[in-house]
Design brief:
Elements (H helix, E strand, L loop, with lengths): L1 E9 L6 H8 L6 E8 L6 H11 L4 E6 L3 H12 L2 E6 L5 E2 L1 H15 L7 E10 L6 E3 L10 E2 L18 E4 H6 L12 H6 L8 E13 L8 H6 L1 H14 L8 H25 L2 H17 L1 H8 L2 H5 L4 H19 L3
Parallel strand pairs: 1-2, 1-4, 2-3, 6-10
Antiparallel strand pairs: 4-9, 5-10, 6-7, 6-9, 8-10
Helix pairs in contact: 8-9, 8-10, 9-10, 10-11
Length: 339
C-alpha cells in the first residue's frame, strides 16, 4: 500500500525535472512518484523518466503518452495512482524536505486512525527568480491549525488567498468519486483540479509548513503575464467550465458556498483584467461575452459577481475606468508576489 501518489507532469522538462524528482525520493517506499512524459520530443524527458523507474522501481513509475497538455498528464497520474492520497507537483517545482516529513506523518495518522481526511492543506512558497525575499502563502487566518475540521470551522480567506494546487493534497478516491477529469490541451486547469472536488470534501486539515516550492521566472511559463494575455481564450475557457460544474447559489453549507463564490469571482476578475491589460478591442469583446455568458447561465450568481466590488471595478466605463482594475491588480501582484 502506498500512502501518497505524486504525479509530475513533464513536457520538455529535462533541464529541471531531476531536482523535482529528487526532492520527493526521501518519502521512500510509502510514496509513489508518477513521472508523466506528456509527449516530449527532441529532449531527454522520457529517457530521464525511464532512468528513475529503473533505478527506483519500487518508488518511481514512468508513464509515456501522446501530448495532451497539463490536464491530460494529471489525468494519467490519477488513473495510475495507487496511493491513498494524491498530489501534483509540476516538474519545475520541488518540495521542502523537513516539511515533507511532517506531511507524510500527518497523512499516516489518518490512514491508520479512525477518522478520514479528505483534503490536506499546507503552505507554498513563491520561488520567484531574482527576488531576495520569498513570499509565503499561508492559511493561518483562514484555517485552524493541526486539527481535523469541516467547512463550518473555516474562518476568513483574505482577498487573493485561495487554496491552490500547490497547497492541496486530496484523498485519491474522492477525486475518482467526483469524476475529476481535466480538459486536454488547456492551460490553467490547476484551478479546476482544486475547485471541482470541493463540495465532496467533508473533512480537512491545515498543516502550517512551507511544503511546496513554486518556481516563477521562466519567460515561457504559463503564469507569465504576457503569456497569460496571449492565452486569454484558455483562461476564459477554464472560467466557463468552472461556472458550469456546480450551482454554487444552491449549496446549503454557507462557508463552502461563500468560498466557491469568491473563487469564481476571482476567475471572472482575472479574465477581465487580462482583457483590459491587453488593450485589444477583440479581447474586450471576449470579456463582455464572458459576463453575458454568466448572466444567461446563472442570473443569481451574475448579480452577486457583477455588482460586487470587484465586478463593478472591472466593468467601469471609459478609459478612466480601465485604470482602476489595473491599479488593484498591480497592488495585489506586488503583495502576493505572483507573475
Amino acid at each position: 500500500m502506498k500512502l501518497l501518489s505524486v504525479a509530475i507532469p513533464c513536457y520538455h522538462s529535462e533541464a529541471y525535472m531531476k531536482k523535482c524528482i529528487d526532492s520527493l525520493l526521501p518519502g521512500g517506499d510509502e510514496v509513489e512518484i508518477l513521472i508523466v512524459d506528456d509527449g516530449s520530443k527532441n529532449d531527454r524527458t522520457g529517457e530521464i523518466a525511464d532512468e528513475y523507474e529503473k533505478k527506483y522501481p519500487d518508488i518511481c513509475k514512468a508513464i509515456h503518452q501522446e501530448n495532451g497538455g497539463h490536464g491530460a498528464a494529471v489525468n494519467a497520474g490519477l488513473k495510475n495512482a495507487v496511493g491513498i492520497y494524491f498530489k501534483v507537483v509540476d516538474s519545475d517545482d520541488w518540495v521542502d524536505p523537513s516539511a515533507y516529513t511532517e506531511i507524510l506523518n500527518t497523512l499516516r495518522q489518518f490512514v491508520y486512525g479512525e477518522k478520514t481526511l479528505d483534503m490536506l492543506v499546507s503552505n507554498f512558497v513563491y520561488e520567484k527568480q531574482g527576488a531576495r525575499r520569498k513570499k509565503v502563502m499561508n492559511y493561518r487566518l483562514a484555517l485552524p491549525q493541526n486539527q481535523l475540521i469541516d467547512w463550518s470551522d473555516v474562518k476568513l480567506f483574505m482577498l487573493g488567498q485561495y487554496i491552490l494546487m500547490h497547497s492541496v493534497i486530496y484523498r485519491t478516491e474522492l477525486l475518482k468519486e467526483c469524476q475529476l477529469e481535466l480538459p486536454k490541451h488547456t492551460f490553467y486547469v490547476d484551478n479546476i483540479f482544486v475547485y471541482q472536488p470541493l463540495p465532496y470534501v467533508k473533512t480537512m486539515y491545515y498543516l502550517n509548513v512551507n511544503f511546496y516550492r513554486y518556481f516563477i521566472g521562466r519567460e515561457d511559463q504559463s503564469v507569465n503575464e504576457s503569456v497569460m494575455i496571449g492565452r486569454i481564450d484558455q483562461q476564459i475557457r477554464v472560467t466557463k467550465l468552472m461556472l458550469g460544474y456546480h450551482d454554487v447559489t444552491k449549496m446549503k453549507q454557507r462557508k463552502l458556498r461563500r468560498y466557491m463564490v469568491r473563487y469564481l469571482e476571482i476567475m471572472m476578475v482575472i479574465s477581465s483584467i487580462l482583457a483590459i491589460k491587453s488593450g485589444s478591442e477583440e479581447n474586450m469583446e471576449k470579456k463582455k461575452e464572458l459576463w453575458q455568458h454568466l448572466r444567461k447561465q446563472n442570473f443569481k450568481l451574475y448579480l452577486r459577481l457583477r455588482w460586487g466590488f470587484l465586478g463593478q471595478g472591472v466593468n467601469l466605463p471609459g478609459k478612466g475606468g480601465m485604470k482602476f482594475p489595473i491599479t488593484i491588480y498591480k497592488m495585489t501582484q506586488k503583495f502576493f508576489g505572483f507573475n
